[in-house]
Specification:
8 helices, alpha/beta, 7-stranded mixed beta sheet, Undecaprenyl pyrophosphate synthetase
């Protein structure tokens, strides 16, 4: 496996802390299947097993939030048959996994525009979220029919409604006001972004929330991304110095104070 950091990622060692929130683009399912002369959907099915692995590892390491990009708002452009099979896989995975997640104290949240999904899938989503809502462990967020631009636009519309109805003055609109209407409101922002499959872009994923996130890219295809590969990503994160606009000297002074 080869992994590459973005050029501007800080490399000075930190305290080795784990991220509170990991966000992942699960790329490479189709190519994994193609390499094995299998239908693309078999790669997506294999990718579900990797999701289980990541959920288990995050729960064991006490990571608070794991957000997975399952289906983007642009994925509707894929062949109709593949989209239909993806949605069917989503329904079956929800039915199969919700009991396991509930038994392991995992909270499931689906973010994205659900209105485009079939009614049966919308009902499965609502049932799965309700079943796990009282849990107190890992928060597993699945981004489905999600786009970062959509997220910002729908939040902006909500703010416009508040101004129109007199509940908010335009002068009161700031980052915090917008954040209240974003899909991940109430959760820590992602600390570590992982993309498997070799591509090095964020692909309209969590555009607002990734502002100060550490980036980690790997050639490993998602179905092959195992616990060791995840540990490599966490080890890379532990060596970053997170400055948030400050200088490296300032960060070191605060750490040693």
């Amino acid at each position: 496996m080869s992994a590459r950091k973005t050029e501007d990622a800080p490399t000075t060692a930190t305290s080795g802390a784990l991220p509170r929130h990991v966000a992942i683009i699960m790329d490479g399912n189709g190519r994994w299947a193609k390499k094995r002369f299998m239908p693309r959907v078999m790669g997506h099915k294999a990718g579900v097993e990797t999701v289980r692995t990541m959920v288990r590892h995050c729960a064991e390491k006490k990571i608070e939030v794991l957000t997975l990009f399952a289906f983007s708002s642009e994925n509707w452009r894929r062949p109709e048959k593949e989209v239909r099979l993806l949605l069917e896989l989503f329904v079956s995975a929800l039915k199969r996994e919700v009991k396991r997640l509930n038994e392991n104290n995992v909270v499931l949240k689906i973010v994205g525009d659900r209105s485009a999904f079939p009614e049966a899938l919308q009902q499965e989503i609502a049932t799965a979220e309700a079943t796990t809502s009282a849990n107190t462990g890992l928060k597993l967020v699945i981004a489905a029919n999600y786009g970062g631009r959509w997220d910002i636009v729908q939040a902006t519309r909500a703010l416009a409604d508040e101004v129109t109805t007199g509940r908010l003055e335009s002068s009161q609109i700031d980052e915090a006001a917008l954040d209240r209407h974003l899909s991940l409101y109430g959760m820590p922002e992602p600390d570590l972004f992982i993309r498997t499959g070799g591509e090095e872009r964020v692909s309209n994923f969590l555009l607002w929330q990734l502002a100060y996130c550490e980036m980690y890219f790997t050639e490993t295809l998602w179905p092959d991304f195992d616990g060791d590969a995840f540990d490599d990503a966490l080890n890379s994160f532990s060596k970053r110095q997170r400055r948030f606009g400050r200088t490296g000297d300032q960060v070191e002074q605060e750490k040693n104070a």
